[in-house]
Design brief:
32% of the residues lie in helices and 27% in strands. With 467 residues, it is of the alpha+beta class. The strands form 4 sheets. Strands 8, 12, 13, 16, 17, 18, 19, 20, 21 and 22 form a 10-stranded mixed beta sheet that branches. Strands 5-6-3-2-1-4-7 form a 7-stranded mixed beta sheet. Helix 6 runs antiparallel to helix 8. The radius of gyration is 28 Å and the shape is elongated.
């Protein structure tokens, strides 16, 4: 018997079985003794017999502590030393109590770690939102649903990798620190690279580097990585977020639509076991094919403007938007106005999985123009619960048109990324026809785990400094 407290922080303690494995042995008369190790979640002192719940990564098992089994002095010492929250190793045979609970009849016990601070109060758990985010380790200990949500997030990411790997995509890594930011419209985080004596930017997207790899001859590539946008924080936005981007040479918009459906369907099955997922009072049905709505039709229905009308002026768009309560900055370019109208008047209606397709060309400088009408591009965005989950294109690979459109956007939009001359140079060497997809891992996890806030699916979200 190793007396509790003799070595408060030993380097190693006995552990032969996880809690779930030990529970499974309870009805096997030939099972060996076990040593389990984990955190004490409860401790009931009941005279000469006491009970404790030990939790590890696989679940919980009950510890049965008895003065006759351990010896009176050792038993008293253990109860004097142990507290809820301590991490211990306990060994002995597995049996069922008279109440039928699988338990370890403790014959030896070692304190692995003495908890110097108490756990959150058992029945209330950890409820304060700020405390939960700032002390996520306690949140996971105290709230089983939180633990399960992050385990589900891991399954989502693993499933996405499995689907892409099975389709012949190669996972790659591109720079987080970039000399030019690109691949989206956003304000970047800026830092200084001392060794190179110049400013760099945390990436807002990895798109332009992945397309360079298509030029290099890799036909299917993807990356799951952190992106950073120096913008506001709200229920669905976090400046540090996780994205999947995937690109397929000789693919197009249709291939990316089908890939999006496949990824989300398999992720839903990994979490919920079905293509139907409950979110609050709503049942979401991800069974393909998803509904598709063109940008033009959505604008006609939402604000009564027809983007096919060649006489449609920016002022008419502004008047229609303001008339429906859309907040617009003075002098906002057409692309910015259309984006704000979409966010305010169009997206909230897309509760079930929906693709918004065929965007105006001025909104999307990296997508190929529609072959039947160059005013539009081959682009889609998937929406669920009124929330954008991603973005997909038939990728623009004409370097002349690409330079022109990036330059035009840079002139009209302060958040547009600068013209990346090296990227244009890469296109001039020839990028094959391709389809591309971006999918937000955080938002997808929100949808599939019934999470109301993006911070609920990020283990350690950044927060404002407390007052």
């Amino acid at each position: 018997m190793a007396a509790a407290g003799d070595a408060v922080f030993p380097s190693r303690v006995p552990r032969s079985h996880r809690a779930a494995d030990a529970r499974s042995l309870v009805d096997d008369p030939s099972s060996p003794e076990v040593d389990v190790a984990g955190r004490l979640m409860s401790l009931r002192r009941m005279g000469k017999t006491s009970f404790a719940a030990l939790r590890d990564g696989s679940g919980e098992i009950q510890l049965f502590l008895n003065a006759g089994e351990l010896g009176a002095d050792a038993y008293r010492h253990i109860l004097d030393v142990l507290d809820v929250g301590d991490i211990v190793s306990a060994g002995g045979p597995v049996f069922r109590t008279r109440a039928g609970e699988p338990s370890v009849r403790v014959q030896r016990l070692t304190v692995a770690v003495k908890a110097l601070r108490p756990l959150p109060e058992k029945w209330r758990g950890l409820q304060d939102p700020e405390a939960r985010y700032r002390q996520r380790y306690l949140d996971v200990i105290a709230n089983q649903d939180v633990r399960e949500r992050f385990e589900a997030r891991t399954r989502i990411v693993s499933t996405i990798r499995r689907v892409l790997d099975a389709q012949g995509y190669m996972e790659v890594e591109t720079p987080s620190l970039q000399p030019l930011y690109g691949g989206g419209s956003a304000v970047p985080f800026t830092t200084h690279y001392e060794a190179l004596g110049r400013d760099f930017y945390l990436r807002i997207a990895d798109e332009l580097y992945l397309k360079r790899l298509l030029v290099a001859g890799y036909e299917r590539v993807y990356e799951i990585c952190k992106d950073y946008r120096n913008e506001g924080i709200d229920r669905t936005h976090c400046p540090e977020f996780t994205m999947l981007e995937a690109y397929q040479a000789f693919g197009d918009l249709g291939d990316m639509l089908r890939l999006t459906e496949a990824l989300v369907v398999e992720a839903a099955r990994a979490v919920a076991g079905d293509t139907r997922v409950a979110y609050g009072e709503t049942t979401l049905d991800f069974t393909p094919p998803w509904r598709q709505v063109t940008f033009r039709d959505a604008m006609l229905e939402a604000v009564g403007i027809d983007l096919d009308d060649e006489q449609l002026s920016d002022e008419q768009i502004r008047e229609a938007a303001v008339g429906r309560g859309v907040a617009l900055e003075a002098g906002a370019a057409r692309a910015r106005m259309l984006d704000e109208i979409t966010k305010t008047c169009v997206e909230p209606a897309f509760v079930q999985p929906t693709f918004l397709t065929r965007y105006p060309a001025e909104t999307t400088p990296l997508a190929k123009r529609a072959p039947d009408d160059p005013r539009y591009v081959e682009r889609f965005e998937p929406f669920v619960l009124g929330m954008e989950l991603g973005n997909g294109y038939t990728e623009l690979n004409d370097p002349i048109d690409q330079r022109r459109r990036l330059s035009e956007q840079a002139d009209d939009d302060a958040e547009a990324h600068p013209v990346d001359e090296d990227f244009i140079r890469a296109l001039e060497h020839g990028m094959p026809p391709a389809g591309g997809l971006g999918l937000g891992i955080d938002r997808l996890t929100m949808v599939l785990t019934d999470a109301p806030n993006i911070r609920d699916v990020i283990l350690f979200p950044q927060l404002r400094t407390p007052a």
